[in-house]
Amino acid sequence: xxxxxxxxxxxxxxxxxxxxxxxxxLTGTDTARAALRARSAESTPDAATVARVTHEFGLDRSxxxxxxxxxxxxxxxxxxxxxxxRTAVGPQVLRATSVSLTLVVLALVLAAGISVPAGVYAxxxxxxxxxxxxxxxSVLGVAVPExxxxxxxxxxxxVTLGLLPTTGWRTPSxxxxxxxxxxxxxxxxxxxxxxxxxxxxxxxxxxxxxxxxGLGEQHILxxxxxxxxxxxxxxxxxVFFAGLLGVAVIAEVIFAIPGLGRLLYDxxxxxxxxxxxxxxxxxxxxxLLARVTADLLQLVLNPQARxxxx
Amino acid sequence: xxPPSRAxxxxxxxxxxxxxxxxxxxxxxxxxxxxxxxxxxxxxxEFGPKAGFAIDTDDAFVLxxxxxxxxxxxxxxxxxxxxxxxxxxxxxDPLTWRFQLRPGVSFHDGTPLTPDSVVTALRYVNSVxxxxxxxxxVGWRLSSPNTAILAPSAYHxxxxxxxxxxxxxxFVLTDIQATQSATVARWDRYWGPRPALATVQAxxxxxxxxxxxxxxxxxxxxxxxxxxxxxxxLAAVSQIKIVTYSLPRxxxxxxxxxxxxxxxxxxxxxxxxxxxxxALAAQVLGGSATAASDVFGxxxxxxxxxxxxxxxxxxxxxxxxxxxxxxxxPLTLRLWTYxxxxxxxxxxxxxxxxxxTAGIEANIRVAEYNTVESDVLAGRYDLFxxxxxxxxxxxxxxGFLSSDYTCAGSYNLNRYCSPAFDTLVGSLSQTAYxxxxxxxxxxxxxxxxxxxxxxxxxxxxxRVAMRHVTGFVPDPQEHYLLTPQLARTG
Lengths: 310, 490
Description:
Helix content of chain A: over 70%
Mean pLDDT of chain B: 87
Strand content of chain B: 15-25%
Number of helices of chain A: 14
Mean pLDDT of chain A: 84
Oligomer: heterodimer
Low-confidence stretches of chain B: 1-31
């Protein structure tokens, strides 16, 4: 399965590259006008300038010619110059990707760090106060969206307590509030999933056998049951990863973070085609890599998956 | 609602919730005092650099705002041309001007300002693939930030000019953190008054509520572009001072004169009579704008400060009846706008309701400007509600009148064509005297009113909020923010 997933990556990327390249045609965008508008917000270009820019960008060539030229450059990491910044797109997308990756990975790690132990413990103490608290917190975490939680955190920790900065991405303290606002939703779902998977695992025959062998309850809980439950959590995490990259745009707007979501949002609004194309390909590549990584981790954790792979 | 509108709807919801949530607490602060020598300031700037501070783009406006670069000629807050890097100028013949450069000016790299450095700078901006507005058409607009003079060391053959340590302004650009922030430090060899501030960090925060919250939390000391929704909680903080001033920007209802429905002036007059402009300014926008009598407002010396009359739906209905419209033959119009400026969809809804009282149905379309521009330029609308600045580069409206209202205008959204009006605007090329030019601007605005070319609705205002700051000078053109007078108070 993993081999098939790995082999799928180039094919999916190739199809994506065609769709991404055809964005102006699919959306009816006049690339030359978009480029000129990005350079001067409130002026309207004359026909001669539009014609000059059309030639400058090679838009007067056939579509296949344009695609092959674009792909050739893209394969070397050269996505051209941004219409708005007029600087190389590649480094900007790379920088924004690293910011978003940091934010999303921090959120996922924090979510897993909190919710997996909470889900495991809640399942082990089913029906008790802690279990009820975890369930209530999970419902709250799913119900409160990032655009309410983010400003709420700012209100408490920045405006009222003055402990953390309101916006920016300069120091580690800048990452605290956006990470927390992104953590709540995956943490809530992972806690619920872990709890459900644990309840299922704890009723399985191998757990009964382990108990019969006299293994300690903590050992059974963490080394056997939790390990099985984690495989489902991992599968969900790969989906979350791509989703969080999209959701991060809300945190990036609220906290003025120069991440990939914000970059893409601005690029789409400004019709900055090279930036949009490079940003979309970055998101698609990251999502594919996340899926393959999750599959590999499943192989490591789940003996059944390893067996199926053989 | 189409996808971009939905996205903006979500964003608007985010911002409203942000406003509501952050509006629940107010932090009272200590008192202010006299200016502190060598103070440090953090300011939240509305529009950040988009093109790596390229001087031939709108990023040049960020550089003048930060006090980094200067032009040969400046525009004072009243829109008058005053000496900048040039102390005087003289027209030798219609194609030749002589400028006397200010003595004792040093670039931030230590080299002196010379005629050659001015030539290098202006030649560069004229040589780029898409030259800026300031040097298009007849004459160069030398108070435009795009014509700022950088040191010769800033210009390299294969890269855009670098603004770092190459300006002449009161502040030296010392550090740029991409689109996040920039740091400037006092230029001790500045030719003018010694800047009161030692260093300033400018943070580029595009979201208005985030800027307001940053000021409340004490992350920044001064912020531009305060939204209406943030006013109550900012006003509740005793040490926060809010400065409001008129902008040279008007929200108008553009009327497509080539639409068969609007060709009859009685229909356009009926639309004008149906709209209660004072109510739009006072009630719909909560007093954050002033009602517009014509296209030029109080932001410029030739503007018309008079308040327009309120609506007269009865008169509007009678005019429509004369034009052949009534209950049996209702008038239905396509009313478009875009959501990039938060007030536009709100105003559009209010205008729709006002038109309805006169029996005019308006079908609203709200879409990202970029996605509808081709339809807009092709005139596929009847009414288009647009916010337009009439002094983008310089304190002179010739460019605006020419592009927006002449027969050959490149942005003539009213699709208005009047030889008499073109002659009037054309006469601007015959006079360089500000007084005469202003008379022509006034006459042009009156002519547009007589011909009912669009309906100017409201004039926009700007708000800057600050704490522990003194010496702020409102600049209607928003060219200058960090000035030598700006200081931190104790």
